[in-house]
Design brief:
There is one protein chain. By secondary structure, the chain is of the alpha+beta class. The chain has a single domain, classed as q2cbj1_9rhob like domain (Jelly Rolls, Sandwich). About 20% of the residues lie in helices and about 25% in strands. The protein has 3 helices and 10 strands. It has helices spanning about 20-40, 65-90, 90-95; strands at about 15-20, 55, 100-110, 115-120, 125-130, 145-150, 175, 185-190, 195, 205-215. The strands form 2 sheets. A 6-stranded antiparallel beta sheet has the order 1-8-5-10-3-2. The longest helix has 22 residues, at about 65-90. The protein is globular.
């Protein structure tokens, strides 16, 4: 007897990339970010729960003329447009017409720092780039994890042997990412996520962005 055909009718796209020259670029970014942390400005109106061990910049980071920042911006936009183009079926001429609007900021997180559960309203795509994951000491398995809440959480309303051992992408589990230096994660802005308390040493440094788009000439 033939087995049933499985089809995935619902899905949440995430994209993972790695800046190829991160060993060169990231120390430049780190030096610049720590200087900007010292001189400011910080986010003047923080909304998402965090504590004093987290510094969040204002939202203009990709407007910074620093060459390392601009090199990273080019990479992030290349990766983002590749995702947008693939998922929307846009050809190259259409992608070139897209206008990208963005907020971009950085976080410097030291021991004990965390970021509460949130998403990013008024944007379609968000991204996180890891400059430095900090020194993971192995004492806390959740230290500094970027965690995404599964939007299919209601599939846990009834648990029995028919579903209990299913894994992602079919199960209700939270998806956790331990960021590595040079890693870029792109995800839909509506996905709820948080950062678990960082219990390592050094600084955990990330750059985040939100993007929204217009397509001039579109019907």
């Amino acid at each position: 007897m033939a087995t049933p055909e499985l089809r995935n009718l619902f899905a949440v796209p995430f994209a993972f990339a790695r800046f190829p020259a991160h060993a060169r670029l990231n120390p430049l970014l780190k030096r610049h970010i720590l200087e900007r942390e010292r001189t400011g400005p910080a986010n003047p109106r923080p909304l998402t729960q965090r504590n004093a061990a987290v510094f969040e910049s204002d939202f203009s980071f990709f407007s910074d003329a620093d060459p390392a920042v601009q090199e990273l911006k080019v990479f992030c936009w290349e990766q983002l447009l590749a995702v947008v183009g693939r998922l929307n079926g846009y050809d190259v001429p259409t992608l070139k017409r897209l206008q990208i609007y963005n907020d971009c900021w950085f976080h410097v997180t030291r021991r004990g720092g965390f970021f509460g559960l949130h998403n990013h309203p008024n944007a379609s795509w968000s991204g996180v780039y890891c400059v430095d994951p900090g020194q993971y000491e192995g004492s806390d398995q959740e230290s500094g994890l970027l965690s995404f809440v599964n939007p299919m959480i209601t599939c846990a309303m009834h648990m029995d042997a028919g579903v209990a051992r299913m894994q992602l992408p079919y199960a209700y589990h939270v998806a956790r990412v331990r960021l590595e230096a040079g890693q870029l994660v792109i995800f839909p802005s509506w996905v709820l996520h948080d950062v678990k308390p960082f219990e390592g040493s050094g600084e955990r440094i990330t750059i985040a962005f939100n993007c929204w788009f217009t397509l001039p000439g579109a019907d």
